[in-house]
Amino acid sequence: MLGRGLQGVRPLRKVMEKALWVVRDRIVSRSAIDDLVADATVRGIHDLVVQIRGRGDAYYASALEPLAEGLAAGFDPLAHLVRAGAAVGVRIHAWANVFFVWSHPQGALPRSPVHLVNAHPDWLIRLGAGQLAPRGGADFEGVSVDPRSEPAREHTLAVFSDIVSRYRVEGFHYDYVRYPRATSASSADDHSAVTALVAEGAKRLREARAGIVISAAVLPDPVVARDRVLQRWPEWARERYLDLVCPMAYHRDTAEVARLLGAARAAAPDTRMWGGLMAYPGERALVRAQVRAAAEAGCEGAILFAYDGAQRDLLDVFAAT
Predict the structure, then answer these.
(1) pLDDT tens, 202-261?
(2) CA–CA dist 90, 95 (Å, integer)
(3) How many angstroms separate the CA atoms of 32 and 39, rounded?
(4) How far apart are CA 278 and CA 290, in angstroms?
(5) How high is the pLDDT of residue 129?
(6) Any idea where the domains of the chain sit in the sequence?
(7) Phi-psi group of 184: left, alpha or beta (phi > 0 → left; psi -120 to 50 → alpha; rest → beta)
(8) Terminus-to-terminus CA distance in the chain, angstroms?
(9) What number is the average pLDDT over the span 166-184?
(10) DSSP assignment, residue 177?
């Protein structure tokens, strides 16, 4: 009788987890953070992935790296985020750029003498003739440390462990955990240096805070990630170095988004996944369609790049889909 009574009843649709990537320029004041947390709370978005190490600098109190240029002395954005989020049930994930440590539109170097670009130039990847390129280029965005440098990896891991041990964050999120391009490496085997940081990071972060959710923003196509930037993230997922993967499927063509996220899902079938989507201004229908594409690809959630308080219409659609 029970089976007969359930005939024709559609299964409940899975509720997609929703998260926002928040770039560091959105957390430079208490009022901006309060607005951010309010925008998430009223829409039922409970995970914020917030950039607190953008260019080898700190949007928090650090004894290991300099305060970000332009941030008011004495203000700790991460501390305010954690307090504000805890008050309303919004989880804060600390987002850190890993190997990418500096850029500047005019090509200037960091002002702080203790910034690692100034203090440890031997850690850095250099272009032809030994030059740095803070302005970036066609296929790289600025200055990166060389993953092969053991002192650089050790410093980076010390920074990350320090954050997790002192701030009650829900998770820790890697970005730019890769070479800027394969030609920056000495050989394809240098992928092992990137993986070495991820493997050791899993150990140290979990020791520093039990239950920490370790995640990474990755190139969605695993073959492209492997060959173009030496990022072997499916291996990290298999080895449980990551708890959550965020493939960046940034494309206006929803069919391509579906293809990319399907490839990512197939490469890491057992790892929690948030499909990374771009917030194209004014494209409400596109956001709706791409959230649905992420769900159909098998993602547990979707994460939008990036939060902008001036585009609350996109947030509304993203949260409601």
Answers:
(1) 999 999 999 999 999 999 999 999 999 999 999 999 999 999 999 999 999 999 999 999
(2) 15
(3) 11
(4) 9
(5) 67
(6) 13-98+167-201+209-320, 100-146
(7) alpha
(8) 35
(9) 97
(10) -
CA distance 44 to 60: 26
- The CATH class, in words, for 13-98+167-201+209-320 is alpha beta
Q: Which two tokens mark 151?
A: 């002192």
In one letter, which amino acid is 278?
Answer: M
CA 202 to chain centre: 15
Q: What is the residue whose two structure tokens read 């394809």?
A: 188
221 by Cβ neighbours in 10 Å (0-12 / 13-18 / 19+) ranks as middle
Q: What is the DSSP letter of 128?
A: G
Q: What is the pLDDT of residue 12?
A: 42
For the four alpha carbons of 227, 151, 204 and 114, in that order, the dihedral sign comes to negative
Dihedrals phi, psi of 4, to nearest 5 degrees? -65, -40
Question: Within 13 Å and on the Cβ side, how many CA atoms surround 286?
Answer: 16
Task: Summarize pLDDT for 228-237 with one digit per residue, the tens.
Answer: 999 999 999 9
Give the residue from 276, 290, 309, 296 showing the smallest Cα distance to 49. Answer: 276
Report in angstroms the alpha-carbon separations of 242 from 174, 196, 223, 262, 268: 10, 13, 19, 19, 11
Residue whose structure tokens are 């302005």: 135
The residue written with tokens 């391509």 in the block is 256
> Tokens standing for 68?
């970000």
Each residue's pLDDT tens digit, 118-158: 999 999 999 876 788 898 888 889 999 999 999 999 999 99
Strands 100-102 vs 143-144: parallel, antiparallel or unpaired: antiparallel
Residue 187 to residue 185: CA distance in whole angstroms: 5
pTM of the predicted protein model: 0.95
pLDDT of 275-296, one tens digit each? Answer: 999 999 999 999 999 999 999 9
Cβ atoms of 62 and 79 closer than 8 Å:
no
Place of tokens 């190139």: 219
Compute the distance between CA of residue 232 and CA of residue 203 in angstroms, rounded to an integer.
18
